Amino acid sequence: MISHVLPTYNRAPLAFERGEGSWAIATDGTRYLDLGAGIAVNVLGHANPDLVAALTEQAGRIWHVSNLYQIPEQEKLADLLVKKTFADTVFFTNSGTEAAELAIKMVRKFWDHQGDPERIEILTFDGAFHGRSTGAIAAAGSDKMVKGFGPLMPGFRQLPWGDIEALKAVITDRTAAVLLEPIQGEGGIRPLDDAELREIRALCDKTGTLLVLDEVQCGMGRTGRLFAHEYAGIAPDIMMVAKGIGGGFPLGAVLATEQAAAGMVAGTHGSTYGGNPLACAVGARVMEIVADDTFLAEVNRKAALFRQKLEGLIAAHPNLFESVRGQGLMLGLKCKSAPADLVRAGYAQHILTVPAADDTLRLLPPLNISDEEIAEAVARLDKAAESLDA
Ligand SMILES: Cc1ncc(COP(=O)(O)O)c(C=O)c1O
């Protein structure tokens, strides 16, 4: 008999009833060190007092109003994002997938608005993940996600990841947009070089193509900069954000330049819940804490410490691990085989990690994880690896 919850996930036999910072506490009281953070969501850990205060204070005032009215909490968060990024304007969503949908719509509307509605081809890359809507699966194009859901939305073409020559061969002044994650998350913590990202930006500029970045997983301080593309010194035209921006409260956003958003006039897009006061009150507090140079410097310091310890782990288990990759606290341990056993062995050591494609184990802790917790995490990973060595 089918479970009452639609069985689209292979769930681990673990349930959590509380969280404290970097720890998730299971229903039997066991404390798990959480290096998944809800898959890069709980940027400030579980039950962060600042976020609990922001949420409860807002909950006592007003939860929800329609976007038919002004929403001061939404305007505050939009102001914070515009001030700290390339963007001139923001639309709030409830998830990364909804942000992907709007980003795709915005590209199409941009070219329609330019009088060129046939310019619809969006170039994407293999290994990409942009969500599970019909548009987002067509964009990513992986067999696993699209099988059985056809016919797919037209207008996408996937290229080999990071293959600038392949991009050069197909991008023209008929290309609508290039869409990519600066560091692929689900694809296995696969970063693009800064030089490659600059080259992609230059190719877009040369052909008049829009550059759309998906920073749903790698954004919001995860890499040690507020957004990952900042390392390359470039700016997109449109950017998708979600996950970390709500610190655990469902919230996403599409950021855009005034020019890219030119077609998105009243009536062209909407959302009942997107940008509601509860979500935006929390999002604004997350932004105030994360978009701060001192906070981001600490993310980088901790990342260096974590990486150094992971190099030791790799050296101790050369039969299991190949290398560590990623940026900031978006780290991937490239394994010699699929990391499912390692994730399970981690459960036995009371540590939570997340598998990804390309035989990669993802380590995405809260950005305020302590030095002691980093040492503890590597010690537990070492024990988990030892149990597999044995
Ligand atoms: C890069 C990227 N884009 C989009 C999404 C979809 O976000 P959501 O699950 O919030 O719809 C994800 C989720 O993992 C993601 O990692």
Automatic annotation (TrEMBL):
Alphabetical UniProt keywords: Amino-acid biosynthesis, Aminotransferase, Arginine biosynthesis, Cytoplasm, Pyridoxal phosphate, Transferase
Protein localization: Cytoplasm
Pathway named in the protein's UniProt entry: Amino-acid biosynthesis; L-arginine biosynthesis; N(2)-acetyl-L-ornithine from L-glutamate: step 4/4
Cellular component GO terms, alphabetical: cytoplasm
Cofactor(s) needed by this chain: pyridoxal 5'-phosphate
Signal peptide per UniProt: none
Pfam families for the chain: Aminotran_3
Positions annotated to bind N(2)-acetyl-L-ornithine: R132, S271
Documented EC number(s): 2.6.1.11
InterPro entries registered for this protein in UniProt: AcOrn/SuccOrn_fam (IPR004636), Aminotrans_3 (IPR005814), Aminotrans_3_PPA_site (IPR049704), Class-III_PLP-dep_AT (IPR050103), PyrdxlP-dep_Trfase (IPR015424), PyrdxlP-dep_Trfase_major (IPR015421), PyrdxlP-dep_Trfase_small (IPR015422)
Enzymatic class: transferase
Gene Ontology MF annotations: identical protein binding; N2-acetyl-L-ornithine:2-oxoglutarate 5-aminotransferase activity; pyridoxal phosphate binding
N6-(pyridoxal phosphate)lysine modification, residue list: K243
GO biological process: L-arginine biosynthetic process
Family, per entry: Belongs to the class-III pyridoxal-phosphate-dependent aminotransferase family. ArgD subfamily.
HAMAP family: ArgD_aminotrans_3 (MF_01107)
Assembly and oligomerization: Homodimer.
Protein name (Swiss-Prot/TrEMBL): Acetylornithine aminotransferase
Organism the protein comes from: Paracoccus methylarcula
